[in-house]
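Ticket 4471: requesting a sanity check on a complex prediction with NAP. Repro inputs:
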Amino acid sequence: MKLIELHNFDDDGFQQAERGTPTPCIGEVVIKVHAASLNFRDFMIAKGLYNPNIELPLVPLSDGAGEVVAVGNDVTEFSVGDRVTSVFWQDWNANNKNRMISTGSDAAGVLSEFAVLPKEAVLPMPDYMSYQEASTIPCAAVTAWACIKAANIGSGDSVLLLGTGGVSIHALQILKALQANVIITSSSNEKLQRAIELGADQTINYNENPEWGNEAFALSNGGVDLVIEIGGESTFPQTLNALKIGGHISVIGALGGFNVQLNLLEMVFKNVNVHGITVGSREDHMELNQFLEQHEIHPIIDKTVSMDQAINEIYSMPSGAHLGKIVIDISN
Ligand SMILES: NC(=O)c1ccc[n+]([C@@H]2O[C@H](COP(=O)([O-])OP(=O)(O)OC[C@H]3O[C@@H](n4cnc5c(N)ncnc54)[C@H](OP(=O)(O)O)[C@@H]3O)[C@@H](O)[C@H]2O)c1
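Returned structure tokens:
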């Protein structure tokens, strides 16, 4: 089988390799991976920015979908032929909140023709989805779900999404199914037009208006209920401005830097609720799958590339050229 491994954090740190087809041990499931999808985290891992102490070589990527081809002797939960996805946290479930092992970072990932995963790191994929679509769920979509759930968002609430990357576009789709009002920002008017076609109610170009938080406050008539925060240093002050009293911030990333200067007075006066989100548990993923099935949501894929193009795409993630998800087709 063909796979890709990360050997060091330099610009040429990945290598393609050939190995024998794996067999499962007790508690394991072998998946013929049909598709994998990229997250910004995969770029951070490749550059040593996520966890410089990561054990190398590492098969990267947390998010994949495929078909079960073998199971360990004791595995009764899955059968050969089942269509499944990976799960981001291999050990975060109802019985264990002290999660430590994430797929594609602390344990081998799915950028491989076959992936061996513990059964706890596998879930059935939504029936109606293609492998490509399902491969986008484990990190980005579960994160969007966890952010929305933390703030208990429902019909009529307003949410501000920052940028049009993987998490934001999954969040947009979930929020419209919940009948929430969505304001979305982007550096590109073309992407904002696409966001409107996908259901966004209002848009702001954050390059054209650096005071986009104030604009979101005005557009939502007194502030938004939730901001999904991806920018950190470069966005947090405007995020605070956008919020209503008692609003929520789900903090997930710091694309614009980690050293935020906080206006604590504004946070106090606005009774701000801040949630640190690290994707979600197995149960969050299951709950989301059910929601996606109920609403037949099809994840938005910007482009699908071959395994040979995967390395280049990982290094290109910071360009932000995509809207939604980039998928690697591993079936050919
Ligand atoms: N904590 C968690 O559980 C978790 C889970 C998933 C992701 N994350 C983090 O969340 C962030 C987004 O992840 P992703 O996978 O959705 O990324 P992505 O697909 O690469 O999307 C990034 C998009 O964010 C926008 N952006 C970039 N810099 C920005 C800035 N300074 N201000 C506002 N928008 C900006 C751009 O949108 P436009 O092109 O439209 O301008 C860019 O295309 C990353 O930091 C990632 O590490 C965290």
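Notes from triage: The pocket of NAP is lined by residues 39-41, 139-140, 143, 162-167, 186-188, 191, 206, 230-231, 234-235, 252-253, 255-256, 277-279, 317, 320 (CB under 6 Å). Leaving this open until the requester confirms.
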